[in-house]
Structure formats: structure tokens, C-alpha cells
Amino acid sequence: MDELELLKKDWQKEDNNDFPVLSYKEIYKMILKKSSSIVKWIFIISLLELVFWLALSFIFKATSKNDQITDLESTTIFIVLSVISYAVLVYFFYRFYMNYKTINSTDNASTLMKNILKTRRTVKQYVFFNLGYLVISMAILFPYILDHDPKTKTIIESATANGDLFKFYSAMIVGTVLIVGIVIVILLLFYWLIYGILLKRLNHNYNELKKLEV
Amino acid sequence: MNKELEHSFVELLEKHQNIVHKVCRLYTNNYDAHNDLFQEITIQLWKAYPKFRGDAKFSTWMYRVGLNTAITLYRKSKRTINTTQFDTVQFKIKAEDYDDTEEQQLKLLYSAVHQLNDIEKALVFLYLEDKNYKEISETMGITEVNARVKMNRVKTKLRTILNP
Prior knowledge:
heterodimer; A: mainly alpha; B: mainly alpha
């Protein structure tokens, strides 16, 4: 194409650059500044993620103490759940770190994009694990609390006396499912928004680059 | 970081800064955005510099990091997007009073290149820097065939932008 050749000729002229030449001092100042790259943001979000779920589990523990169900903590099922959650936390922390380390700006464009998108997949897996964990622990702990909490026991007894037992149980179940459902939707929406905004351009570019690739 | 490394890096970048300016020139439309991207590319180059072994040419190594930053790592600010839209409008007005002089033609060509997407700009950049398809495919991480097909499509697209 003649036009591109014309552009190339102009492009390669030494004096075609009309931008001010930066001095040694100016460039030196630049290397002291902090990066605001997308990778840094993903890393920060991943860390916040870990902190968020850790904080949530501590808050849960703190409140359960006040609720006189401390003996819950010594049940086998609770111990198993805790061990699983900590093991998974360590695993994901390792994965986040390894992902972050593999991102290398000197890789070719396609590999770099693939590695960044991989970090997003890890975050997604972590989120789905936590949501699944939330649902399963609710399903296990809910009947336990119903059975052991003295306050609920009195309510159940009076409900049985009135013949409202079915009404009570269905209200409890519907209420819990609704609350858990709302929490899950809000969290998913939140992730979808953050990553949607952050990675929209990257996703677009990756697809554009990989188009036609066998 | 050690002072000697800082010194050798800044000196090399000062000498080769034209490459970074050229990447910025393709991907931004105004002075502020240009400086912003230049800053981020410099940081990325500096972060990668300890791993630069000198087995590749410094300039070739800069192409990679520069383009990677522009396409993938850099987060465009809102300000840049607004200016892009503004400039595109200006380009269209310019295209109407088409003039046959070489300078005018070049202006139109640059504005047409600005209307390409990020990946197409990268291909044009490497082409303008006189890289062959093997080098282009290695930098972008695609097959040589794909690089050729894409480049042909870019040429067609540019032609369509120039002669609507």
C-alpha cells in the first residue's frame, strides 16, 4: 500500500518527533514514581478479597460467642469446615502470588494477556469457593442452631403447642434462603462490575489478537 | 535499587526515548495522555530492566515492553477517552477539505491510524518500524500467517477510512 509506505518514510525520519526530548533528570524522576498498571490493581483487589473473607469469618466467630453457641466450635463438623477453609485460603494465597509473579511485561503480547486473564480466573474460583462454602455451612449450621439454641427451642415448643410448626419452619427456611440469595447476588454483581470495568479493554484486545488463530 | 543500575538504565532510555515517544504518539491524542503513558512505560521498563540481559537489542526489548504497556497494562484515564472522541471529530472535518499535498496526506494518514483499534495500532507500529512478519508474530505472540492476514486487513481498513 503506497500510503503506508509514505507514512513509514515520514515515521522513520529522525526529526519527525515533535515531542520535547526528556532530560536524564526527568527520566530519573519517572522511575521513582509508582505504577498504576492494571496488574497492580488486580493484585490489590485479590488481597482485599482475602482480607474480606478472613474478616467475615472472624466476625462470625466473635458473634457466635455472644450467642451462647460456643460449644458449636468443638463439634467435628465445625472443625472440618474450619480446616478446609484455612487450607483453601493458603492454596489461593499461593495461587495469587504465583499468578502475580508469572506476569512479565517482556513476554509476547498474547502470553502476557493470557497470564493476566488467568489471575482473573483464580479470583473467580476463589469467589465461587467462598459462596459455595457459605451455602454449605449455612445448610449444616442452620439445623444445628435450631436444635441447640435455647431461644429457638422455646419458640419451636410454643409453635408446636399452637400447631404452627410447619409455618415456623417454612418461614425460617424461606427467610434464610432469601437472605443468602440476596448476599450472593450483591457479591456477584460487585465482582462483575469491578472486573468488568478493569478488564473490558484487555478482554477485547485479547479476543481481537486471537481472532483467526487456530 | 542499586545506583549503577539506575544510572545505566536512565542513560539508555534517554538515548532511545524516541521509541517510547512513538508508541505514545500512536496510542494517545494529547500532551497529558502522552506523558501519562510515557511515565507508565518508563516504570514498566525499569521494573523489567534487572532481567534485561543484553542478549536482545535494547530497542527491540523496548518495543515489547512499550507495546505491552500500551495495549495491556496501562489503564486509560477518562480524560484520554474524551479527547479521542474530540479528535476524531476534528479528523473528519479535515478529511473533507482534502488536499493533495504530501503533508496533508500524512496528516490524514496519521489520523486514520488513530482510528484503528489497539491491536491494529501495534501491527502498524511494528510495520512502520520496519519489522518483518517473523518479528511481528513473535512480539504479538501470534502465528506468522495470522500476522500477515491481520496486516492485510489493517491496510484495507485504512483504505476504507481514507476513501469512505
